User: Fold these one by one.
Assistant:
Number 1:
Amino acid sequence: MSAVRPVRTGEQVATPEPLITIKSAAKVYGNNRGLSPLNLAIHAGERVALVGPSGSGKTTLLRLLAGALVPDEGPNSVSINGKSPANLKPGRELASLVGIVSQRFDLVPHLPVMHNVLAGRLGHWSLARSILSLVWPMERRAAQQALARVGIADKINERPGRLSGGEQQRVAIARMMMQSPLVVLADEPVASLDPARAEEGMALLVGLVHSDLGHANGDGRSSERALIASLHTASLIRRHFTRVVGLRDSRVHFDLPAGELDDAVLDELYDLGDGYGDVEPLAGLAARDG
Ligand code: ADP
Ligand code: MG
């Protein structure tokens, strides 16, 4: 199911403006190319999986979108809802535009889960710290509801350092529910989880953009949102995403409807063809033709 549908206005068919526009955005780190000039347009309602070998530029692309890196061509080569994330200071405006679940979840280990979740509301840690002394009953209730939705209501007073990887991810997702940004980014969110937890984690992430149930404030913006996540599992991508972008050598190698992704497409991207890359097969196990 593609979310990009033309809007019919009488006889004319107008395609809506993309929510996200990346125009020849690139990033070089010293001598390393992080991302080659890249163009991508993503519409509201899309759920885009980013795939590609390690070093292909997935994290760089996500951090450019999150406003955590400035593209070499200038901040305006990345636009979300008409704004350039790198031009916005950390704070409410950036937080309502875009949020990222990083690979390590970025929780503050020594603060209770409740405060970690409430930080989503504030979009900035210095602000979060400044309310530690205040107990806002309404906010506390919202944090409780978000934690209940991700199934860990009982962990509200726990420290993240004492939670499993799957539970930490749920705290990060509950924090994102409080933040409620238009664009949700996730960098290898399920890489450290077993298959069952990965499936649940992915469903929760999709809930953040695909249903108002995923939001603490039920603000009716679900159809305006988008999800972009890096991951490596074809079956998860087919089940949860609408589109898949393959990166290789910091370039777009393919851009397909998620339903067309099969293991052969992924194997080719990851160089897992019949040669298995350049890896020498073990002697005696390598009886292959040609
Ligand atoms: P991926 O997330 O797909 O593994 P990255 O975006 O992390 O890829 O990296 C893309 C390229 O940029 C790699 O060659 C990597 O070594 C390089 N790179 C990423 N971050 C840095 C950095 N902070 N300093 C130098 N090189 C970097
Ligand atoms: Mg990465």
Note: The chain has nine helices and eleven strands.
Number 2:
Amino acid sequence: MIEKKTAVKADRLNAVKGMNDILPPDSAQWEWFEQHVRELMGVYAYRNIRTPIVEYTPLFVKGTGDTTDIVEKEMYSFEDRLNGEQLTLRPENTPGVVRAAIEHNLTYDGGKRLFYMGPMFRHERPQRGRYRQFYQLGAEALGFSGPEVDAELILVAWQLLQRLGLCNVRVEINSLGVSAERQVHRAALIAYFEQHADLLDADAQRRLHTNPLRILDTKNPVMQEMVAGAPQLLHYLGEASLKHFEMVKTLLTACGVIWSVNPRQVRGLDYYSHTVFEFITDELGAQGTLCGGGRYDGLFETLGGKPTPAVGWGMGIERVLELVKVQTGVVAALSPDVYAIIPDVGALPVALTALQTLRSQGISVQMHAAMADGMGSMKSQFKRADSSGARFALVFGPDELSKNEVAVKSLRDGSGAQVTRPLDAVLEWAATLQSGT
Ligand code: ATP
Ligand code: MG
């Protein structure tokens, strides 16, 4: 039974459906993204947190919410064969971060600003921008209650997309107020939907009394008009909630973020209150939400911790990199500075010593190495040097070596110019091989 479902072609195993290999040169794009993230998080004084990929299932049932899509249908859950524990591959990381914060009493001396990057797992129908293993960058600010941190977090995501050179990304914000306000709105919402019961699809009917707010999130075209006329939560917010929301808007405007209010934005997760937000592009088809987040003041208590205000977001890295490709077409180059041509294996000890010295000076060196058919001819080695994209070939030929020298041939400027350099003074000429010199 299980074997039947495994993706086996003859005797070859493939990757699990919806789970991707990230290969060079694409992986360079990921490193480029991660580099920007680290720099930016440093600038905003957010610190890195790394939590396990596997957590106890109830963390998500309670934390993410048992009426969410994630918990209802998307989790990879299993029983530990050895002790029967119920475990889940994390579908998102906010509950994990909050669990860790409670477990280690992270906020004992004040608020903490944290970020993470890593794989998440959701059993969805794979398509462009929607995978079963996907990567999220997340930022969470724990222990802060004011609207300035909501604004700061939105600003971090905004700045990151700017740094990556992206444009035409909408920032939509909304406020979900506090629980008491949502209760009153909920009653009005249920009453409204009951009046239009004939238009509710099966999903909406099921949610009517468990999570009616989520019905606002429906993608069913038949329900759009009816849903557009539903009572808006914003109209049910009290003075304090409105003040919080107004301040977020003021600060965003002051910092140059272009935003709009989407009164129907509810987010897919149960734990949000006050500010919620999404970053959306129209250039990636149906999977246009790059980043989503909001305030989750109740989550610490839900997970057994002390009441602790918090706010955060998650960003889909595949979607962001796809947009980079669509908008800027930038593909990171992965060329070494130097390709080392070694016609005879006897030259290997001398060549490797010289290459080590070059590398110690930060020169990126790709060494020719034997393939199934041996080291290959000079001609085939030069071919590989060319296709590596290196600016220079270093030729450890017998003539040069007999003079304790190496030939340096220019590959990229069309001149084919060649000089010889002494092998006992590598440090003196290493810098001439540096990219950009
Ligand atoms: P969607 O409505 O697209 O399913 P979501 O509301 O489920 O998104 P969140 O749980 O808020 O998404 O996750 C934050 C971000 O992670 C999303 O905005 C998206 O960029 C990314 N993301 C979510 N699910 C996937 C997936 N299956 N594959 C790739 N990226 C994803
Ligand atoms: Mg989803």
Note: The first strand starts at residue 8 and ends at 9.
